[in-house]
Structure formats: C-alpha cells, structure tokens
Amino acid sequence: MNKRQAIIMVYQIATMTYPSPEIINLLCDYPFERCLEVLLVLRQSPNKVKAPERFIKRALEEGWTSATTPRNVKCKSAAQNENCQGDQERVVFPFYNWLEDHS
C-alpha cells in the first residue's frame, strides 16, 4: 500500500466519507505521521466538522496536535470564508447556586 492509498483509508476512517482530490493532494504534501495526527484531531473534534478541507488546512497551518484543542470558526457567510475569525477563549464563571443564597 502506498502513502496515497493509506491517506485515503485513514481519511475514510476519520470522516466516514471519501476525500476530495484536493484534500488528498494537500495531505500528500506532508509526512504520513503528520497526516495521521491531523486526521486524529479531525476525528476527535467535539463538534461535527462541516468543512473538513478548511479544518485540515487550518490544522496544518497552525500546527494543531491531538493535545491542542481547535477553536470554533464562525463565518458570516459562505462567500466570506477567507475572513473567518476564531472565537475568543472561553470564560469560565464560578458556579452560583441561587437556592443557597442567603443575601
């Protein structure tokens, strides 16, 4: 089995779909281990990835690993895909139990 066939198989395992030629060519430009890592990040994403090609490009560009968490990307419209901005870091508020409030 060659690298191209292996990437196709791993992509299918990660997404349950067949990769586009663009995704295959993109992943073939990177070492196989890096492809596996990026597809693992894709597979472990807490939310469904609606645009796997953009997700993979961003993961490769920003050096995402399975230890890092990708941030959600929100776009105003499909025509403005290049102008997407990531969400700011999530702010955690301490738990407040209004039933036990004695004020």
Brief description of this entry?
The protein has helices at 3-15, 21-28, 32-44, 52-62; strands at residues 73-74, 85-86. By secondary structure, it is mainly alpha-helical. The N and C termini lie far apart (69 Å).
SSE pattern, N- to C-terminal: HHHHEE
Whole-number average pLDDT?
79
Structural class: mainly alpha
Number of strands: 2
General description of the model:
With 103 residues, this protein is mainly α. The protein is built from 4 helices and 2 strands, in the order ααααββ. It is elongated and about 70 Å long. It starts with a helix and ends in a 17-residue tail after the last strand. 12% of the residues are buried. The model has no long low-confidence stretch (mean pLDDT 79).
Task: Record the SSE blueprint.
Elements: H1 3-15, H2 21-28, H3 32-44, H4 52-62, E1 73-74, E2 85-86
Antiparallel strand pairs: 1-2
What keywords describe this structure?
single chain; 103 residues; mainly alpha; two-stranded antiparallel ribbon; elongated
